[in-house]
Fold this protein.
Amino acid sequence: NPLEGLSWITPIKIGMWHVCLDYFFYLYHRSTHEFDSLWWVHRQHHATKHPTPILSILADDVQECLEIFIVPFLATTIAPRMSFAELHLTICYTLYVEALGHSGVRAEWPHPILGLILKPL
């Protein structure tokens, strides 16, 4: 059953996971821009002037390890425990958001899950 492991609280868990992911990613990403000694980790990603979903993967091995394994792992250790189905949906949604965020298109619409919750903030 593909819906096994999903419940009414699934969107809340996914939202909380993304808040944790954003927190750890912000710390990592901001550090690579603020500290000259860390710029080497992230500079390859900024080698293109016109981002596309395919070029969003433009990074060296250290950056890939940080962004694909370590940062999501940290989010997973802090966020509520998720079933396999919930984690699968979370990863699919994250890949969608990352591709959209690197499409070069200015997004003027709210976050699909957290938009209404975060709007007052």
Observations:
- The chain has a mean pLDDT of 83.
- The helical segments are 10-34, 39-42, 61-78, 84-101, 115-118.
- The radius of gyration is 16 Å.
- The longest helix spans residues 10-34.
